[in-house]
Amino acid sequence: MNRVSHIAIIMDGNGRWATQRGMQRIRGHERGAEVVREITTYCANHPEVEVLTLYAFSTENWKRPKMEVEFLMKLLENWLRKELPTYQREGVRFETIGDLSKFSPRLQERIAETKELTRGNRKLTQVLALNYGGRDEIIRACRKACRAGVELNEANFEEFLDADLGDVDMMVRTGGEQRISNFLLWRAAYAELFFTPTLWPDFTAQELERLIEEFKGRERRFGAL
Ligand code: FPP
Known about the structure:
The chain is of the alpha/beta class. It is 41% helix and 16% strand. It is built from six helices and six strands. The protein has a six-stranded parallel beta sheet with strand order 3-4-2-1-5-6, sandwiched between helices. Helix 2 (25-44) packs parallel to helix 3 (66-90) and helix 3 runs parallel beside helix 4. It binds farnesyl diphosphate. Farnesyl diphosphate (FPP) binds at residues 11-16, 29, 32-33, 36, 56, 61, 75-76, 79, 128, 175, 200. Farnesyl diphosphate binds at residues 11-16, 29, 32-33, 36, 56, 61, 75-76, 79, 128, 175, 200.
C-alpha cells in the first residue's frame, strides 16, 4: 500500500462559497482559514503524513481587487498570531515557500517569528505557499545555483528550492477545477492528483481521509512496469 508522507492542497472555492450565501468573498476566506486549522490538526495526528503544503497566495493573486488582497494579508497576519498555540499544541512546525520579499515588513517579521518559535515541532510541517508560483521558484533556484557556481542535476536541485520538503505524494484541488495552476511543479512530478467539487470552506477531515484511502489503493509505477 502507498505511504502518504506529503499532501499538497490547492484550496479553491472560497469566493464562490461566500457568494452562494449572499456574503462578501472575504467571508469565504475567513471560513477557509478555519478549515486550514481542521485539516492541519488532522494531518498532525495522522500516523504517516509529515508535510502538508497549502496554496494560500499565488504570484497571480496580486491581480485581485485591492480590498481582497489587503484582507488576505491581514487575515494571514492575525492567523499567525492566533494559531501559535495550535501549532505548539499539535506539534506543527511552520514553514513557507514563495517569494516573501513582496510582503510588508510586519508580515515578514511575523512569518519569521512563527518559524523560529515552531522550529522544534516534529509531528507535522505545515507549509504555506505565499506569493508562490512553481515557475518562479524554479527560476529562483536556478539563479541561486548559478550564483553558487553549482552545476544542477536532479539529485541536487531540491537544495536550491525554497524549502526541503521532498516529493508530493497527493495533490488535492477543491472547488471543481481540474488543473494544477503553477503549484509545486518540480515536487509534484509523480504526485497522484485528486479533484473534488467540494468548495474549500466545506472541505472536511473526513473527505481528506476518504481521498487518502483512494490514494492507498492507486497503483504508482513511477514510470516502471
Ligand atoms: C482560492 O479561492 C483561495 C485563495 C486565493 C486564498 C486561500 C486562502 C485561504 C484558504 C484562507 C487563508 C489561509 C490562511 C492560512 C490564513 P477563490 O477565492 O479563488 O475562490 P473562487 O474560485 O470561488 O473565487
